[in-house]
Design brief:
The strands form 4 sheets. Strands 1, 2, 3, 4, 7, 10, 11, 12 and 13 form a 9-stranded mixed sheet that branches. The protein has a 5-stranded mixed sheet with strand order 14-16-17-18-15. The model has no long low-confidence stretch (mean pLDDT 92). Helix content is 17%, strand content 38%. It is elongated. The protein has 6 helices and 18 strands. The longest helix has 12 residues, at 16-27.
């Protein structure tokens, strides 16, 4: 069986589930998963795991991401993006570039945001977008996310092109709306491209049409943890889930014996234990 990750470049209109199904057919395997859902309108990086790589997806999706987005000022939609129904529209005098850049500073660091109601988040076991489509009233839980960079690249009429470095769980649609509110303007997301997910970069991404076995990346190459070499007399114990005493700080590590990747280990309270094992 093939094991590894694909740095897939998703096209607009394709759902993340569509991408997984296509990869299953191409490589003739059911064991396929994706890391970090992209909305159908969004393009860019969708990490795909094949075979045993599916066990390690959590270490890919927990990392920071970079998005390039277009924010449309003067219009608000029910879905927080251009695919939704327009619920507010205003004519306005465009703020200066200095005012726009100053406004971005309010979003750097940890911020609280409310995900869009048209999202896959589950509320009491039901997907938010299902309830939104049925006009069921409900409150979206607010969450803390972290924005490391919010940079305006271009201003063209009432459209801002921005790049955002952010933590897992950040909704760029919500960020677009909140940024507009900070300017006392309606806003919505016009375009979105994810250009980095941890160690996956858009420059190295492949399209569905370009997929082949030689595009599969080894599991250990995609995990950002530091390397830990296990001595030969502790390999069997590690694989059996037994602890190995180690004087190091609490952290996750990539565990190797010589040059062979064994899996991800967790160092805690002076002991190394297996977290995920490669069969």
């Amino acid at each position: 069986m093939l094991d590894g990750f694909i740095n897939l470049k998703k096209s607009a209109g394709m759902t993340s589930h569509d991408a997984v199904n296509i990869v299953r057919k191409i490589f003739q395997t059911k064991k396929v998963g994706h890391g970090g859902t992209l909305d159908p309108m969004a393009t860019g990086i969708l990490p795909i795991a094949i075979g045993q790589a599916t066990k390690f997806l959590e270490y890919i999706t927990d990392c920071d991401k970079t998005y390039r987005a277009e924010i449309l000022l003067g219009i608000e939609t029910d879905s927080c993006d251009i695919t939704g129904k327009i619920i507010r529209e205003e004519k306005f005098l465009m703020p200066s570039i200095e005012e726009l850049k100053f406004a971005t500073k309010n979003f750097i660091g940890e911020i609280e945001q409310s995900p869009p109601k048209y999202s896959a988040i589950k509320i009491n076991g039901r997907k938010a977008y299902d309830m939104a489509r049925k006009n069921i009233e409900f409150e979206m839980p607010r969450r803390i996310v972290k924005i490391n960079r919010f940079e305006i690249l271009k201003v063209e009429e009432n459209i801002l092109t921005v790049e955002v470095d952010c933590s897992k769980g950040t909704y760029i649609r919500s960020l677009a709306v909140d940024f507009g509110e900070s300017l006392n303007l309606p806003a919505t997301l016009k375009n979105l491209a994810r250009i980095r997910v941890g160690k996956f970069f858009i420059e190295n991404a492949v399209t569905i049409e370009e997929l082949s076995e030689n595009k599969i990346i080894p599991i250990e190459s995609c995990i950002e943890f530091e390397k830990f070499n296990l001595p030969s007399h502790r390999v069997k114990a590690y694989l059996n889930g037994l602890p190995t005493n180690i004087n190091d700080e609490n952290k996750l590590v990539k565990v190797y014996y010589e040059e062979k990747f064994l899996g991800v280990g967790k160092i805690e309270s002076g002991e190394l234990r297996s977290a995920k094992i490669l069969n």
